[in-house]
Amino acid sequence: MSAPLLAVEDLTVTFATARGPIEAVRGVSFSVAPGERVGVAGRSGSGKTVSALSITGLLAPTARVSGTMRFAGGDAGGPRSRERRALRGRHIGMIFQDPLSSLNPTLTVGAQIAEPLRAHMHLSRAAARSQAVDLLGQVGLPDANRNVDEYPHRFSGGMRQRAMIAMALACEPTLVIADEPTTALDVTIQAQILELLVEQCEQRDTALLLITHDLGVLAGVAQRIVVMHEGRIVEEAAVDDLFRRPGHPYTAAMLADLALPRRTQADGGRRTPPLLEVTDLTKAFPIVRGEAVRRTVGAVRALDGVSLTVEEGRTLGIVGESGCGKSTLARCILRLVEPSSGGVSFAGRDVLDCDRRELRALRREMQMVFQDPFGSLDPRMTVQQILAEPLQIHGVARSRRARFKRVAELLAMVGLEPEHAARHPRAFSGGQRQRIGIARALATEPALLVLDEPVSSLDVTTRAQILALLEDLQARLGLSYVFVAHDLSLVRSISHRVAVMYLGRIVEIAGRDELFEHPEHPYTQALLSAVPVPDPVRERRRRRIALRGEVQAATVTARGCRFAPRCPRAQPRCTAEDPALLPTRADDHRAACFFPGPAAIHEEVA
Amino acid sequence: MAATSELAAEAERLAPAALAGPAGLGRQLVADRTALAGLVIVTVVLVGALAAPALAPHDPDVQDVLHRLQPPSAKHLLGTDQLGRDELSRILHGARVSVFTALAVGLAILLVGLVVGMLSGLAGGLVDGLIMRLVDVLLAFPSLLLALAVVGTLGPGLLHLALAMTAVWWVDYARLVRGLVLAVKERPFVEATRAQGAGGLRIAARHVLPNIASPVIVLATLQTARLLLALAALSFLGLGVGPPTAEWGSMLNDGKDFLADAPQLMLWPGLAITITALGLNLLGDGLRDVLDPNLR
Question: Does ipTM surpass 0.90 in this model?
Fold first, then answer.
């Protein structure tokens, strides 16, 4: 290795808190060579983000930092010194996780990209603006000339992250630090952004320090990986070696979490009677314009003719990018959102025809687990109160004593202790809170659980644990699941059947293994090809199906296949006619495409 | 996403336990110097008012014209008024009228505002629209003037004054409560409760109300201080209690004719009003800090 661009020696970061000092980083040393791409991996709380922030000197004032740092051969000064500040933005670019809150909503995107250019490169206003347009073009933002004057809230998540990258690259830094840059994004957008990062860094010979909790992301990006655990580096290796022969048990455990076991048996010939039947479900949200006089100018079809069945004791996975209507579907099934038309039948009863009292009774049997384990539990209640509430609503355990007993049972069922009942939700971690959410849903012994992204906000390890719990509960209690997720690997792990949604429609539905091994719809194929594979060799060799652009809203007036504008196979017919969901390879493998079939070689050009 | 929620959890865990229940709240109020000062003042005033019959050295209404307009002395610690009544006793008894009326009206407007605001926020649609337009109208009207008009029609008197103030002052609560309800209503745990099969009443009482309580409690203390001042002002104008009842606003009014000879007659009730209002305000600010650490 040549002289390192960045060398960190014996970095220790301590936070002073009300409960005494907490050591977030303990004696970490690592280096990055010029133009090298280094990944820092670790679970949440491992100190990876704190290490990165201390490099840029952006830590909170409560942090005590010790250790030395050299950058491009020179002493980079103390963490809050002027030398360090001069590096930031000029020589070190930063990309943050959440592109919405890291962009200033009151400034145009162009102005924010121009800011470092004017501050560090002393460009004139006009020159900075034209440079900003150039940069936005380079990061693949369509119509850069117009978008440069837009405000961040008009951008989608992927566009915002592109703008962040443009900002980080603006002053031609020699090192870019990206902190979980794709964690908040859909898998197809994640693939685009990662590719862009690698491409831009290679072109400019910029070094990249990529921080993530997902080793899979690093396989195709990083050349060297540093694994952190509890504030220390536990392993450092070239990417191929690390994936092939993880040297530390912790790394091995992280890799094992990625390969979610397929405990659930695939849909064999066994048929069970359908528990839930959804037919031709439609939900249109009106678009209202005007302040004083409000009028409806159109409608967004969040759901557009969705039909599906869920059998007893089985799991139907529903997968799609954000905005595809999967959450609306979950809520329409439970009538938390009133569908516009269509039918939902549960155990032979018409859900949409129920009056208020019947609906309440029905909700005892169909329950929901929510995405946000932090928001979906009332912070003012104790766990006992939270879990007892459904019992009180449905008059299940009438005495106080019976409720206490049932709550203890429920806690045991989800792997928590009875003494947890007295605590408030804030005392629990994300995974534990989600267990409480699951226990609450199970309180009234339902037959069906609708799970809306139940593990999306959890880290990889916790994710695997919760999935295992769900599978275990299904086996023990004979539950049926509707499992909604944007992550294909999650759906693959737990589902018997899988439906792929795009803009309010099911574009493909099949048995789990059938769908993953023989995807027929080009959108399913694109989704599958976007999932990072935790194997650097395969990841480098793999060709991705490039999806143009991002999901757009489906207005009622739109004609033809919804996917056609982004589809590599689109023909004139696709924009004129609606493809129906028809059987393809087998009777129960259906796809809504005029040209189904395996992905052709010519499409697989990334 | 994982890291964001992790941070949120951490922030919540490190935040002073605003939700720690009454015991924790008390401890923090004592630890907060502003709040402690407010708490002490308000407690002293309340104890003084409650124990006035026992604490007052004289009957507040007994006249002694021979010893009128006396300066403070050992017999009359704060002196006597124009009819020779003991000023200290009148201040203490006056607290019963002034402070308790402010508290009663404060409670009344709190209840009205809370019910109307929650109804507006939870029902939405037409109900919300109608209520909020009424609130807009009442807010656009100077409330003191409106109270004057009501008392003018019904005739002076403490009860009429209290009714008049209740009729116009609830709007602040209604507005605040509606806004808070709208925010809480969108939080995921409300939808989660709905998915349990809970009805609107349970959600309102068990989930929405506890989650909007802190800002409402803070407003209540600040409003009580404002009410105290407004009541004193209206009484000063002669719209409140009539003689001989001791009340701080009317005592001010009585004293104004003797400002040159016995300025203490205005000083004592004025100080009583100011200190009580200050105490309530300090307590309100302290409560805000303790209940809502984000505002600090």
Answer: no
Judged by DSSP in three states, A387 sits in helix
Amino acid at B22: P
Q: How far apart are CA B118 and CA B116, in angstroms?
A: 6
Average pLDDT, chain A: 84
The pLDDT value recorded for residue B51 is 81
User: Residues A177-187: pLDDT tens digits?
Assistant: 888 888 777 77
Q: What is the mean pLDDT of residues A509-535?
A: 87
CA A459 to chain centre: 10
Is residue B38 a contact partner of residue B281, using CB atoms and an 8 Å limit?
Answer: yes
| Chain A residues inside the 8 Å CB shell of B205 | none
In the predicted model, what is the mean pLDDT of residues B271-294?
80
**Whose CA is closest to B65, among B75, B46, B51, B80?**
B80
Give which of B153, B142, B147 is closest to B166, Cα–Cα: B147
Q: What is the residue type of A321?
A: E
Work out the number of other CB atoms within 10 angstroms of the CB of residue A307: 16
Q: State which residue of chain A sits closest to B214, comparing Cα positions.
A: A380
The tokens of B144 are what? 């003191």
Does B211 reach chain A within 8 Å, measured CB to CB? yes
Is 0.90 topped by the overall pTM?
A: no
Helices (H) and strands (E) in chain B, counts: 13, 0
The answer to whether the beta carbons of residues A464 and A260 sit under 8 Å apart is yes
Contact (CB<8Å) B197/A457: no
Share above pLDDT 70 across residues of chain A, in percent, rounded to a whole number:
92
Does B125 contact chain A (CB < 8 Å)?
no
d(C-alpha A548, C-alpha A212), whole Å: 26
